[in-house]
From TrEMBL, chain A:
<dbReference type="InterPro" id="IPR050067">
    <property type="entry name" value="IPM_dehydratase_rel_enz"/>
</dbReference>
<dbReference type="GO" id="GO:0051539">
    <property type="term" value="F:4 iron, 4 sulfur cluster binding"/>
</dbReference>
<keyword id="KW-0411">Iron-sulfur</keyword>
<keyword id="KW-0456">Lyase</keyword>
<dbReference type="InterPro" id="IPR033941">
    <property type="entry name" value="IPMI_cat"/>
</dbReference>
<keyword id="KW-0004">4Fe-4S</keyword>
<dbReference type="GO" id="GO:0016829">
    <property type="term" value="F:lyase activity"/>
</dbReference>
<dbReference type="GO" id="GO:0046872">
    <property type="term" value="F:metal ion binding"/>
</dbReference>
<dbReference type="Pfam" id="PF00330">
    <property type="entry name" value="Aconitase"/>
</dbReference>
From TrEMBL, chain B:
<dbReference type="InterPro" id="IPR000573">
    <property type="entry name" value="AconitaseA/IPMdHydase_ssu_swvl"/>
</dbReference>
<dbReference type="GO" id="GO:0019761">
    <property type="term" value="P:glucosinolate biosynthetic process"/>
</dbReference>
<dbReference type="InterPro" id="IPR015928">
    <property type="entry name" value="Aconitase/3IPM_dehydase_swvl"/>
</dbReference>
<dbReference type="InterPro" id="IPR033940">
    <property type="entry name" value="IPMI_Swivel"/>
</dbReference>
<protein>
    <recommendedName>
        <fullName>3-isopropylmalate dehydratase</fullName>
        <ecNumber>4.2.1.33</ecNumber>
    </recommendedName>
</protein>
<comment type="subunit">
    <text>Heterodimer of the large LEUC/IIL1 subunit and the small LEUD (SSU1, SSU2 or SSU3) subunits.</text>
</comment>
<comment type="pathway">
    <text>Amino-acid biosynthesis; L-leucine biosynthesis; L-leucine from 3-methyl-2-oxobutanoate: step 2/4.</text>
</comment>
<feature type="domain" description="Aconitase A/isopropylmalate dehydratase small subunit swivel">
    <location>
        <begin position="137"/>
        <end position="182"/>
    </location>
</feature>
<comment type="similarity">
    <text>Belongs to the LeuD family.</text>
</comment>
Length: 510, 254
């Protein structure tokens, strides 16, 4: 008897709107305000500025009656809508789906379970599969997972599969790339205006190209694999205006650590982060990637940098696919503006165990370290190594702690051995690293950024202190649960390697 | 007919509970009469059925109707703090396990929360050598599930036998993965700091119809935010199961 009022209540609750995932992403975005840490960084302030209209080209998507942000416009087009509002749930057509060896096998398992053993993927040219996480390991299950990817790609005739078979010598695998986010960019899969989803939280990296890109789980990816669509909630946008000349001792990593320290690790949950201003315009594509790569560390759904001539130039020899960049309308609604004068910033670190645990590098000069790690999607690109080499070159000294170098991709590795470092009289990064006493650059992969199998190169198997150019300093992230990770720019990482303490790179760069 | 659709108690649909837990929970019946009164009219009946056959398998049919039925969880809680990232829920070295393979799914359950620092969390979530946890509810703080998008995280929690997390807020991808897989109910609290008032091992009830959390050990009652439209999706077993059940996609695979 008592069950009837219950059922009635229940149906009232649930009959409101029962569409699939109507609120899949509607958990409260309410979390931001109460976590503001007290930072001792009074000099560096993010000032909320009144809305300012940056100089932007007009919309390229026709009607501007309903002003939209870049992210809203991309999702509007992908959902075949003329306009939409933050908070709406829309079915989005996906341009590229990326998966890798850690989440690919599970995604494939779900795809087969739900669509059938003989099902075909929605578009064999729009799925990019990149083994990158656990490659150079004797872990049998890890090796098996790459085999699962290979079998699936053969079966489905997947066009872009960056395979590796000879684990003894990565160079014997011309198709092998390495870290997926960097490979996606280098291989021309990142294009302005498009929607890229991937089974990796750092998929937001591709926002550097002025596209919508975000990380999803295996189940969602299995759905996309079969249908080419996904239900997404349109995020509202936070705007970050970075102006001022970038000091020679700063890198994009400092900028994003500054921002995350300001808004906390949950400050952008369910939100888009748009980066603009004269500093952003001056950044290279790789630096823009560093900026967007870590938006997930602030909880962001995606990050975007408006495409410009730097973007178009980068893409020139990488893709023949036509793309259509979009830009925020002048009167688009941003839920908040943050303004930074970059010329006043100083080199930063994120102390253990949270990416928003911001401090000035110089404030941590007494922190003794055991090792330095330069690598990952965030900090293992060509320019990241060039930056580290610049510090080693300027110092002329040798490192005092083991310094591990893990190029993100095969292309980056080639650059380390081929490109001359500016001001070095023609030396390559690899020569400079050797002279400085670093470990030899190893095979490209995600490496020890996320710990990985026990035999992963440079995995932190002891409770040590590491300065790292990676993206996360959670407990156990690089292996040992009690390890301590200081996230830093390649400049700061190299400077710290030279002293054995967390070190402000100005000690060597000025 | 009113009794034809019994209020549904979801416990673990994946793993059998240990008999110890069942026994321990039934003793907690004693706490029930002290529940605050406003809730009684709504939930008295379900609570009885919830406590007696505590971990009896949920009625497997009747699920279409059960969108509106009770979903209640009862048992020991495991308490964690703010910003519990997915590396702590399931460290990356275990990501070689593929959740869609049944034996590896079970293994993931045995490893849930193994990444928590031992100094802060001396009680393991899953006892070494066991596949499932004796804790049925996880209570956490702000930004639960942040970091990596690994779906292994909600899967590990679900595979351990726990079906509900109660936290102040969730990281986006984790929340979505909970719903997409149907592994875990990610429920939000109305107030902050509940995790500071609860202790691992407290006996709690989470009532998703009355939207409250009762800590029987401490004699406290907390409001929860409604799970909303995500509830039926999780109850169905994830987005694919929900879409089939509601006729959005055809019921059999090709």
């Amino acid at each position: 008897m008592a069950a009837s009022p219950l059922t009635a209540t229940g149906s009232a609750i649930f009959s409101k709107k029962c569409e699939l995932g109507g609120s899949i992403s509607s958990s409260s975005p309410s979390l931001v305000a109460h976590r503001c840490r007290k930072h001792s960084l009074n000099k560096i302030l993010a000032v909320m500025a009144p809305s300012r209209t940056p100089q932007r080209p007009p919309s390229t998507t026709g009607s501007v009656k309903h002003a939209m942000t870049m992210t809203e416009k991309i999702l509007a087009r992908a959902s075949e809508r003329s306009q939409l509002e933050p908070g709406e749930n829309v079915w989005v057509n996906v341009d590229v789906l990326m998966t890798h060896d850690v989440c690919g096998p599970g995604t494939i398992g779900i795809f087969k379970r739900e669509f059938g053993e003989n099902a075909k993927v929605w578009d064999r040219e729009k799925i990019v599969i990149i083994p990158d996480h656990y490659i150079f390991t004797s872990d049998e299950r890890a090796n098996r997972n790459v085999d699962i990817l290979r079998d699936f790609c053969l079966e489905q005739n997947i066009k872009y599969f960056y395979d590796i078979k000879d684990l003894g010598n990565f160079k014997a695998n011309p198709d092998y790339k390495g870290v997926c986010h960097v490979a996606l960019a280098q291989e021309g899969h990142c294009r302005p205006g498009e929607v890229l989803l991937g089974t990796d939280s750092h998929t937001c990296n591709a926002g550097a190209f002025g596209q919508f890109s975000s990380g999803i789980g295996n189940t969602d990816a299995g759905f996309v694999m079969g249908t080419g669509k996904l239900l997404l909630k349109v995020p509202p946008t936070l705007r970050f205006i970075l102006d001022g000349e970038m000091p020679s001792y700063l890198l994009a990593k400092d900028l994003i650590l500054q921002i995350i320290g300001e808004i906390t690790v949950a400050g952008a949950t369910y939100k888009s982060m748009e980066f603009l201003g004269s500093t952003v315009e001056s950044l290279s594509m790789e630096e823009r990637m560093t900026l967007c790569n870590m938006v997930v560390e602030a909880g962001g759904k995606n990050g975007v940098v408006p495409a410009d001539k730097t973007t178009f130039k980068y893409l020139e020899d990488k893709t023949s696919v036509e793309y259509q960049p979009v830009y925020s309308d002048e009167n688009a609604r941003f839920i908040q503006d943050y303004k930074f004068d970059v010329s006043k910033l100083e080199p930063l670190v994120a102390k253990p165990h949270s990416p928003d645990n911001r401090a000035l590098a110089r404030e941590c000069k007494d922190v003794k370290i055991d090792r330095v790690y330069i690598g990952s999607c965030t900090g293992g690109k060509t320019e990241d190594f060039m930056a580290a080499a610049k510090v080693f070159l300027a110092s002329g000294k040798k490192v005092k702690v083991p310094t591990f170098l893990v190029p993100a991709t095969q292309k980056v590795w080639v650059d380390l051995y081929g490109l001359p470092v500016a001001g070095s009289g023609g030396k390559t990064c690899s020569q400079i690293f050797e002279e400085a006493g670093c470990d030899t650059p190893t095979s490209p992969s995600c490496g020890a950024c996320l710990g990985g199998p026990r035999d992963t190169y440079a995995r932190m198997n002891e409770p040590q202190v590491c300065v790292s150019t990676t993206n996360r300093n959670f407990h156990g992230r690089m292996g040992h649960k009690d390890g301590q990770i200081y996230l830093a720019s390649p400049y700061t990482a190299a400077a710290s390697a030279l002293t054995g303490f967390v070190t402000d790179p100005r000690e060597f760069l000025q | 007919m009113a009794t034809a659709v019994p209020p549904k108690t979801i416990c673990s649909s994946h793993l059998p509970r240990t008999s110890i837990l069942t026994r321990r929970n039934s003793t907690s019946n004693a706490h029930i009469p002290t529940l605050p009164s406003p809730l009684k009219s709504l939930t008295l009946t379900p609570r009885r059925s919830l406590l007696t056959p505590l971990f009896a398998a949920a009625d497997t049919e009747a699920d279409l109707a059960s969108f509106g039925s009770t979903t209640t969880f009862h048992g020991f809680c495991y308490v964690v703090g703010n910003n519990i990232d997915t590396d702590q829920i399931i460290p990356a070295e275990h990501l070689t396990l593929v959740p869609s393979k049944p034996d590896e799914y079970r293994k993931l359950g045995s490893l849930a929360f193994v990444g928590l620092p031992t100094a802060s969390y001396p009680v393991p979530f899953v006892n070494p050598g066991e596949n499932s946890s004796r804790f049925s509810v996880i209570i956490g703080g702000d930004n639960f599930g942040c970091g990596s998008s690994r779906e292994h995280a909600p899967v590990a929690i679900g595979a351990s036998g726990a079906r509900v997390v109660v936290a102040e807020s969730y990281a986006r991808i984790f929340f979505r993965n909970c719903v997409a897989t149907g592994e875990v109910y990610p429920v939000e609290t109305e107030e902050v700091g509940i995790w500071k008032e609860c202790s691992t091992g407290d006996i709690v009830t989470v009532d998703l119809v009355g939207n409250h959390l009762i800590n029987h050990t401490k004699g406290k009652d907390y409001k929860l935010k409604p799970i909303g439209d995500a509830g039926p999706v999780i109850e169905a077993g994830g987005i694919f199961a929900y879409a089939r059940k509601t006729g959005m996609i055809s019921s059999t695979a090709a």
